[in-house]
Amino acid sequence: WVSIRLNDGKPLMSKLEFEPSATLEATQAGSPSGTSAPSDAAAPGTGSSEGGLRPKKQDCYAGMPLEINMYSEEKQFSYEGYPSWVAKAAAVAKLFREGKPFLPTLEERPSRIEQAKRLAPFKKMTPPQLEKMSAQNLPGCFFGLTFPKTAEEMMSEEFGAEWLTKAFHAAGTLPKDNRVIKLLRAQPLPVKGFDAAGGAAMKMFLTVEYLKPDPELHTELFCKYPYLYKDFPVERREVSLYYDGDGPEVDVQMRLTHLFPFRTAKFYFGEVCRETANFILISETIPYSRRGKVENGKVVEKIDYEPYQILPVCGKYQDWLLPDPAEYYCCLFRALGRLAAWDKQGRYDDYFEPAPVFNEEQYLAFTLPQRQKKNSKLRQLEQQGAAKICDVAIKFMTKEVNNLMPAEMLDIKNLQRIKDELVEMTPYFTDMSDFYQRSNSDYVAAMHANLQADNAFFWRDEYGDLECGVLDWGSFDRAPFCLRFLGCLSGADPQIMMAHEEGIIRCFRDEYHRCGGPDLPLEELLLRYHLAYISFVYESCTWIERDIHKHMTPAELADMTGVLDERFQAAFRVRCRGMTIINAWTYYHMRGNHYKATFDKWAAGKGARFLTEFT
User: Fold this and answer.
1) Is the separation of the CB atoms in 136 and 276 below 8 Å?
2) pLDDT tens-digit profile of 195-250?
């Protein structure tokens, strides 16, 4: 039995037809029952209609029923009058409190899944080509519509309310007998300053009015679109030339988010043009609450928030705005566990194809014959290159951001030790952070790439428990999830990680198993994460010359007074890249010889077969 809300808002209990699963494994309708040779995950958007939790009918996806009540007897709390997502979130939280499985649920199949065409292949360009083509307005590949590139164009006669109506009708998110009659606001969000709205694209708020108001239609919308090349050439080249992040993000938001095991922003429209490398993504605006007054890096004004009221936004690498960062990271990692578990249940197979199932022995049998030995001279060259990168990082920390560094991290002996260990392990970075990470399908699943607090929104329920919704699906894919943990924890304060790292990873592990994934040993999860962390410390240093110095000179950095310096906080990319380096090196130091000892033990034991051979 599931609760359905009628158009007039009245709840109705109705029995629906679905195909139940006798066991967790039985829900993997399209997944292999045995094992197969490992292979790279299929590219997003190339999924087969044969795989996954296939719907019994074309208008729904099969799954377990979710009992949704409109009243909590225990707390004497009614969900009437709240947005429709609240009662569902309460039902999911109840399963968690009771320790019961939360498996893929019965869901309606949006009409846009069939209406939208496939994502066209990524098109590589040179910088001059990108500059020329991105200035044009050409039709996209999903619905064949042209779309605005700026807030000014959005408000123009060419687009505006009439275009929004056409776009929402095409995506099936607005009934054909309804339309947008007014576009009241198209307000760009800041790209610099303390409250800069991310660094991967431009954003704006839209306020609209519908012919027929509906509680399920949001009038406050959020629009994401690329930087104009003429205004932000460095940023635009990074996100449009070197990898395909925008296309899959829009594709995932359109085709997958309704299947996720948590709340996310409701999709309204998306379009991608490969000829121009332009895109647009429109979703609901998350109604973040007002943040209390901040003084010296602390929120000093206490505000009481109601149950299910969305808590204030927290910027990237600004965890000091959170009342208890560890609680928030545990909440985020439980969401990651659910996300990965439902992939193991076949939830996203229609998008990705059914995933292969294999263990380490099968992986090695398949991959070892394809690996080639390397010349010892290459190892020397790799180590020499790594030494130079580490020297750049040491200079950066001691001469440029020295006022931001903990005192012990200005001791050259500490920095030299880390450098020496990294250089020694450099030839095996790929082995520990890629080859080994992919060696068992239990540790590979659909995963968010950067789930920090800024890519989520939080609320507390009537029990006071913290829950979250998830945003921003750039680079979403099947991947070794211990690798993806790096992007999710890179902003965490080293002291928080020292006290809570194991607990945070345990939250992922427990939720992964409860929601349908395998029961993984915590020790192996930590091993894989720590092996990946070693190469991450080194890789973070490569951003100094690639990105940081393109936005701020060494002299400007050296003039910073500390992490809370307004200039540092205002420079979004400098803040994010810089704090990644500071956090990574500091945490590596705080763990003493842990990382080198972990590598040595692994390399001499279970990891020996995964190491590159040098001649």
Assistant:
1) yes
2) 776 677 899 999 999 999 999 999 999 999 999 999 989 888 988 988 888 999 99
Residue 143 tokens read as 């619905």
Total residues belonging to the chain: 615
DSSP letter at 111 equals T
Q: What share of the chain is helix, strand, coil (3-state, %, to 5)?
A: 45, 15, 45
Task: Please report which residue ranges of 26-159 form alpha helices under DSSP H.
Answer: 85-98, 112-115, 127-133, 151-155
Distance CA 257, CA 266 (A): 8
Q: pLDDT band at 55, cuts 50/70/90? A: very low
Burial of 529 (0-12, 13-18, 19+ CB in 10 A): buried
Helix (H) or strand (E) segment spanning residue 330: helix 325-344
What is the DSSP code (8-state) at residue 614?
B
In the chain, what is the straight-line distance between the N-terminal and C-terminal CA atoms, in Å? 65
Among the listed residues 577, 303, 330, the one whose alpha carbon sits nearest the alpha carbon of residue 453: 330
| pTM for the predicted model, two decimal places | 0.89
Task: Dig out the tokens for 191 from the structure.
Answer: 């790209």
Angle subtended at Cα 159 by Cα 155 and Cα 164, rounded to the nearest 5 degrees: 100
Angle between helices 522-541 and 481-489 in degrees, nearest 10: 60
Q: 607 near 437, Cβ under 8 Å?
A: no
Would you state the torsion angle of the CA atoms of residues 262, 264, 269, 275, taken in this order, to the nearest 10 degrees? Answer: -90
**CB count in 10 Å sphere of residue 67:** 12
Q: What is the pLDDT of residues 151-195, one digit of tens each?
A: 999 999 999 999 999 999 999 999 999 999 999 999 999 877 677
Give me the pLDDT at residue 368, please.
Answer: 93
3-state secondary structure 280-320: EEEEECCCCCCCCCEECCEECCCCCCCCCCCCCCCCCCCHH
Rounded to an integer, what distance in angstroms lies between the CA atom of residue 97 and that of residue 295? Answer: 36
HSE of 442, CA atoms in CB hemisphere, 13 A: 16
Burial track 421-433 (b if 16+ CB lie within 10 A, e otherwise)? bbbebbbbbebbb
Nearest to 467 by CA among 338, 596, 275: 338
Among 22, 55, 41, 34, residue whose Cα is nearest residue 444: 41
The predicted-structure confidence for 429-456, as pLDDT tens digits, reads as follows: 999 999 999 999 999 999 999 999 999 9
Instruction: Please report, for residues 46, 82, 94, 471, the alpha-carbon distance to residue 11 in angstroms, rounded to integers and kept in the order given.
Output: 38, 12, 19, 28
Q: Are 326 and 503 in contact (CB under 8 A)?
A: yes
How many other CB atoms are there within 10 angstroms of residue 136's CB atom? 12
Question: By C-alpha distance, which of 196, 207, 124 is closest to 160?
Answer: 207
Distance between CA atoms of residues 165 and 223, nearest Å: 15
184, amino acid identity: L
Please give the Cα distance from 538 to 386 (Å, whole number): 8
Contacts of 37 (CB under 8 A, 6+ apart): 356, 358, 362, 366
- Which amino acid makes up residue 230? K
**The pLDDT of residue 36:** 37
